[in-house]
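Input:
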Amino acid sequence: MAKRIIVDAFGGDNAPDEILKGCRMAADELGVEIILTGREDEIRKAAARLEVNISDFEIVDCPDIVTMDDEATDVARRLKNSSMAVGMRLLREGKGDAFASAGNSGAMVAGATLLVKRIKGVKRVGFAPMLPNMNGFFMLCDSGANVECTPAMLEQFGLMGSVYMKKVMDIENPRVCLLNNGTEEHKGTEVHREAYELLKARKDINFVGNMEGRDIPVDGAEVVVCDGFSGNIFLKTYEGVAMALMDKIKGVMTMNLKNKLAAAVVYKDMKALKKSMDYNEYGGAPILGCAKPVFKVHGSAKAKTLKSAIALCAKYAETNIIEEIAAAVAVQNQEEQE
Amino acid sequence: MAKRIIVDAFGGDNAPDEILKGCRMAADELGVEIILTGREDEIRKAAARLEVNISDFEIVDCPDIVTMDDEATDVARRLKNSSMAVGMRLLREGKGDAFASAGNSGAMVAGATLLVKRIKGVKRVGFAPMLPNMNGFFMLCDSGANVECTPAMLEQFGLMGSVYMKKVMDIENPRVCLLNNGTEEHKGTEVHREAYELLKARKDINFVGNMEGRDIPVDGAEVVVCDGFSGNIFLKTYEGVAMALMDKIKGVMTMNLKNKLAAAVVYKDMKALKKSMDYNEYGGAPILGCAKPVFKVHGSAKAKTLKSAIALCAKYAETNIIEEIAAAVAVQNQEEQE
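Output:
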């Protein structure tokens, strides 16, 4: 049966135009059903202007929009009639199989927790974007939702990330590591040392130990576990250095005519390299630990990225990830109580 | 008067050969006096083999060497007769004006604290390497010596880094920022929020607020303050991404004959770019907060890098940085008690 994907028509920098176009592509190419949330009149006007057929989409009209300036928790209170909150409630009520939005990340995490709710036993949801490395991609969990974490939270991030990478990203036996300031097992704070022990003890994940920021971009694990503070530092440094360096190289390649001519020769290959390093290619971040699939799409996503994200949502909804996490977490919590 | 620099002849990957050559360059070009610590017979044999004149160097013979596998605190106990420990004791006793070693970083920090001692009132020494950004360089303090920090420790890192950048690196009014997971002042943990307030309240530094990992490589502050855990994640991710990306680009540039020919055209300019991104160029890291100048030279340093490091040591010893930090810290501690 076709999966029904609820999409926030007013999330992200390019809403609603690119959202509508991406949904059309997804419906045509992936055979999913689309349920849009947002101001119906604006959606219909935009679709007419863009000449995008939305006749087969269901539209759930709602007046408000969560902006980047709104407080995260507003989504469940002041903005409970926003396209994001309504989409999450529809998901919770079973009107759709997954929810995707390119809107405010903080509000997505708060909404996932407050409106969609967590899987029973999951301590915190994890915000888990995909990042490129030299050989492919990896997941960073948590990348900013939880500034401070307990060891058991980190253990769950490892577990949830591993299940997701296996089932949605088709990585066989994904390697899970703990981001730390050294590879030896005594490294980090007390929280890291305890998390190390918990992760090591799990039979259902392939824990490869501590890993440093230096090794992850080269050939690190497929799941990088960390608290949201370190994860955020890692993520933004990753992005900042790559962007700054690419800018510098562009500077070299355009500094004089001779270099410009050489640049023209390698242009296509350099562009392919840049594309392989672009984490927009991976569509976004699942919010792991929700009772239903919630997916944060990159804020700057255009139609094609949204379509990729919807494909991941559909796959997320087709697998039994949530049941598998629920079962594993139930065992973890039972052991904690013993 | 010529500054007397104590140099560990057995620290780093290229000891003693490159150390001896670098010391010779420093003595000739900078007019400093060199005191070497280490196995005198091996030093003399290496100098003879390399035909490096060391007749004007003082050599303090000692039998042991701190290796990368030694525990940090061994430097003050089991290895108290090592070239590193002896050098630090000579510094403490006033036999030289500064100490430089390319040896084990952890042992350098432990030795700085236990043997050279801290400036009165300094809570912890900070390990503060220089890193390149798009417009020059900046200091990261702390980059790994102190995994967990109090707000007052972070405040001192900001103060000490600022004084050093002003006096040794000739940066007028250096900008100081706090590495955080967002720019808003409420970001981070309780420790970050308190550190923010302390740094903001200081009249003697140019605190520009919180900064994200994304902005620092582009045009960040000249002093980046953080705890050693985040600092280590930042530093190694910085290095890892840059190295991985440069490797990828090398791959593109050598993938076929056409690209190789283009690469030949831009080779010199790309090499200059790579050099500007190489943090070996900045010689190493001062260990801030010691009662005397202690400088960690990069482990892989060759003669030229060592000479640059010795130049910084001499400048460090010529300025009144330590007195200035001592005075500022005394005020801070007085205020804390009030």
